[in-house]
Amino acid sequence: LLGGGLGLATALAASPPGRALLARAASEALSRALRGQVTIGSVGGSFYGGPTIRDLEIRDDAGNPFASIPRAVADYRLENLLAGRIVLDRLILVEPRIEIVKWRSGRTNLEDILRLGEGEPGTGSPQLVEFRQVLIASGDITVRVPWNPPDTADTPQEVAVALAAQRAVPG
Fold first, then answer.
1. Strand pairing of 97-101 and 134-137?
2. Which residue spans within 50-96 are E strands per DSSP?
3. pTM of the predicted structure, to 2 decimals
């Protein structure tokens, strides 16, 4: 049964309509695994461990953009995916635009989308999500963190001075 499924996936990847069907199926599967919406423009390459995904878009559950990736190439072991583990041995992202937002709670949209650290104690292990080697080729990553002016900043000018001082801090 497994061999037949893999053979079907390989056959689908050989034709444009089949690749479109695989892209829709992969979008739906990723949307179920992640919190948010995932769309994939097209899928190519080898299903057995080196697919190329084009026009990958990931949005959080409120519809806010998290990642826009024109091209991604992943290397993985099929047995990990079949066991429900997201383990990518190598991930190449070409010209991605990624926006990581840290909420006032201390969590990030990345943690929310990947469902990291969720689940009640004693309910079993969380899903394994591991990216081992990530290469970003000519991309943009924006990290947004909350900031509040100090209580001593009473005027807009004092707030602007405090913000400028905070922005001057390395890191």
1. unpaired
2. 50-59, 65-76, 86-94
3. 0.72
| β-pairing verdict for 86-94 and 65-76 | antiparallel
Task: Check: CB of residue 50 under 8 Å from CB of residue 73.
Answer: yes
Q: What Å distances lie between residue 34 and 71, 79, 83, CA to CA?
A: 19, 20, 16
CA atoms of 29 and 41, how far apart (whole Å): 14
Q: Tens digits of per-residue pLDDT, 16-38? A: 677 677 677 777 777 777 889 99
Query: What are the tokens at 145?
Result: 């963190």
**Beta strands 37-46; 86-94: pairing state:** unpaired
- Over residues 33-77, the pLDDT tens digits come to 788 999 989 888 776 667 888 999 999 999 999 999 999 998 888
